Amino acid sequence: MTLETMFNVAGKSVIVTGGASGIGRAYAEIMVEMGARVRILDMDAAGLETTVSEIAAMGWPGEVSSGQLDVSDRAALATAFDTVVADQGRIDVVFANAGVDAGPGFLSPTGDRVPEAQIDTMPEAQWDRVIDVNLTGVFMTIRNAAHHMKQTGGGRIIVTSSVAARVNESIVGTAYMPAKAGVDHLVRNAAMELAAHGINVNCISPGPFITNIAGGRLKNKADREAFEAQSLMGRIALPEEIKGLALYLASPASSYVTGAQMTIDGGSSLRG
Ligand SMILES: NC(=O)c1ccc[n+]([C@@H]2O[C@H](COP(=O)([O-])OP(=O)(O)OC[C@H]3O[C@@H](n4cnc5c(N)ncnc54)[C@H](O)[C@@H]3O)[C@@H](O)[C@H]2O)c1
């Protein structure tokens, strides 16, 4: 394999869920920059419009388009995948990335109890929403990806998990950790099942990245400092910094990688 073929994703048909912002947008950008045809699926109509027009304006060789949906809407998700196949003929790479925060943790960044975020006070609806989007949404995304990729002989499924799948956090809402832990297990199981169909399934497990999650919480000083203190590099990451790993997992370079958890956290989880 030459360096050029190793990272070649030109012409690939790619879906990115939650690609209108943050980490998902970075996935979409690197794929379009490398010549792929990318469909961003996101629930944020305004964010989609801005993201698609800004990516298109870059003049990169790939293509970008969008579809508005909530990944917890199973029928809409299946229809969106069918539409990509109708438009592009196939689906080669799927980033199952859409996710939400789970509200405050049981402790504030300064170590105080958060009355409304204790296990016996947090809203049940918050638990349901986080599981619906962050776990069931990923399951349904993998399911649709597998269905289509089996028919074309293979593909790549890349799931955004989190270091919170393995490291417990007192300042992150309780539902977030079990949802991401479920995602990690689901990825390993899907990798075992789908290898025979030529489908590689892997996880990217970020530590703290500055995005719009939790209303841009990591842009606030107290929250940012709590996460910065955990990082061996003393800082949190920019979405830009996930692009290399995303390209690696989407391209021939990672042909023998499946069922892996790729941690990208500045060493934060070594302290956890
Ligand atoms: N930012 C971090 O520090 C961090 C760390 C670890 C893991 N993650 C994970 O990264 C992924 C992306 O998060 P981000 O930090 O880029 O956040 P973000 O809020 O900047 O972007 C998330 C995008 O997903 C979309 N989205 C949310 N729920 C959706 C739904 N139900 N259906 C369709 N689209 C939906 C949002 O509209 C948004 O465009 C999430 O799975 C998150 O859990 C983030």
From TrEMBL:
Xref: InterPro entries: NAD(P)-bd_dom_sf, SDR_fam
Domain of life, per lineage: Bacteria
Stored Pfam families: adh_short_C2
UniProt keyword terms in alphabetical order: Oxidoreductase
Family recorded in the similarity comment: Belongs to the short-chain dehydrogenases/reductases (SDR) family.
Stored PANTHER family: 3-OXOACYL-[ACYL-CARRIER-PROTEIN] REDUCTASE, SHORT-CHAIN DEHYDROGENASES/REDUCTASES FAMILY MEMBER
Protein name: Short-chain dehydrogenase
